Structure formats: structure tokens, C-alpha cells
Amino acid sequence: MSESFSPQISDRICRHMNEDHAEAVLMYAKVFGKTTTATAAEMVAIDAHGMDLLAQVDGTATPTRILFDHTLQDAEDAHHTLIDLVKQARQTGK
Hints:
This is DUF2470 domain-containing protein. By secondary structure, this protein is an alpha+beta fold.
């Protein structure tokens, strides 16, 4: 994990996403993690290259790694990238 994504920053982003944007995390799992039958998802880690989710699929916790289309520079880049991914997910109609 690069310095721009210390464990503390990863934890802060994950906590925020899970508490305030659970619907977006589920969309990430369904659309980009290809777990279309997921009923819930939790972001467990984020780094400069991707995010790790734990999706609930048929009652089973399923680890899912989603890679970003570029290397994130910092937490602000992560913020913008996560917003862009939500927009992309919504456009898929899922």
C-alpha cells in the first residue's frame, strides 16, 4: 500500500462508504465485481489500485476485488473515482 493510502486512510474511506453509501458499495459489487445476486456488500479495503469488497451472495460472504482504471494518487482522487464508478454503475441500469 502506498503512503497515499495508509491503513488509516483506507479505514476512514471504508468506514465512510459503509456507513453513508452502502447502496453504492452494493452497486460496485454487483456491477464491477460481477456478483449480480449480491444482497449486501461491505468495503473492507481500498488502495491505489483497487478496492476489496465482501459481498453477500446466496448467504455466503464472497471476497471481491475491483481494480481501478488508473492508479489513484490520493484520497481526493479516490473520492472522485468512487463517484465516477457510481455514475457508471447507474448507467448500466442495474
